[in-house]
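User: Run a structure prediction on this.
Assistant: Running it now.
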Amino acid sequence: MTTTHDVLVIGGGSAGLTAAGIAVNLGASVALIERARLGGDCTWTGCIPSKTLLHAADVARLAATASRVGLADTPIPVDFPRLMAHVRGVRQEVYDEADDPQIYETMGIDVLHGDARFVSERTVEVTADDGTLTRLSGRTAIVATGGRPAVPPIDGLDGAPFLTSDTLFEITEQPEHLVVLGGGSIGVEMAQAFRRLGSRVTVVERSDRILDRAEPEAALALQQVLADEGVDFRLGATAIRAEKTADGIALTVRDAAGESQITGDALLVAVGRTPNVESLNLAAAGVTSTKEGITVDDRCRTNVSHIFAVGDVTGRYALTHMSEHMAKIAVMNAVVHLPSSIDTGHVPWATFTTPELAHVGKTAAELDDAGTRYTTFRFPYTKLDRALTEGETTGEIRIHATRWGTILGASILGARAGDLIGEVAVAMKAGVSLMSLSSTIHPYPSYGLGVRRAADQWVASLQTKTAITALKFVFRLRGPVNAHVPGRIV
């Protein structure tokens, strides 16, 4: 059949923008369809506004605790409407610089605004806000419609006021008591931000700990930091009922002690994501989906060979960097037919609290379950000179590796963890051993040096009594036998 474009990209968030940009740069004719504003969740309701708010809260924390570095503590009054205007201003700046449709139209991409739905496996109908219908046909289609905050089936919640990440950054009045439902990354990041800005915060999580993807010991350490700052945690608690009150909302929870009620003037629901698939009419294209999202293989291909799906809509990863990665994989397969697969073994995760918590590769629990032999090499921030100079000594770098120094996974709790985990991810991807990391020159003093120092612990573990005694004999050395003591940091 006659096609209007080589590639139809449905959705203009991180995944869609990446897919459209790469495809057009490879010489494809591309149509990009978005029903709202380009930029998607990351620009408008996720990464950008949340990290802007976290930074402002950290500035407030630094001012209020300046005596830690020899200055006077100077608590800053919070002008909340002005702060939120700043948050919205930053995301507008990101949009203007990176997401404005004109940028993509200049590249040669046809940008259409409206709701897209399949009418066949190669044809998409776009309904604009004014009701105008446009039909497009493509040799291939990439679905990147993202997701939205999941709303759990709690009795009374639909009639009670609550916030999600979609609405949180539109408020102009600071909650006196913010109740957060969910102990994942969004929940704990916003819990810390609002607590540092002066709100009372209670986090309700049905698991017995926060951040269940993270190493338990690291997650517990971060939880203690937040608790010390005043965040109240209700773990092992399930929300069973919500109701509107004169002052806000009342949430009834059930835990091992029975039922109790938590009252606050705002409730943030942060329990996960739901894929945006309902309006796509996937059945017309024959595309298979489940409640988790559109089913794809590791090449991001659906059950229909020329239709791909990437990002949150697949339910595989709710991470901006993985949305971009999946978009690259899909375009390589769809446009230039270069067999490419998702790199599932080196996916970094990061929670941008203070301290940050990040990991890549296998956790200790996963290695134990698989029966993998490994050793964990640790380096604490208390021995990292840059951390000492900045008073950010909470945390530890942990690297799981084989006896030969092959990195299997890593977890970092501490300042700049989200940046440092990238170095470990590169090392794992490139097959760089701990020996190579240890022998790589890092600038001093830097946080990055902590990764090298963690690798140094593996080198030190080779210094056994037997090895040193043999060296003394071969080279006629006369010094003592200072064998490595397990657990001692060098």
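The mean pLDDT is 96.
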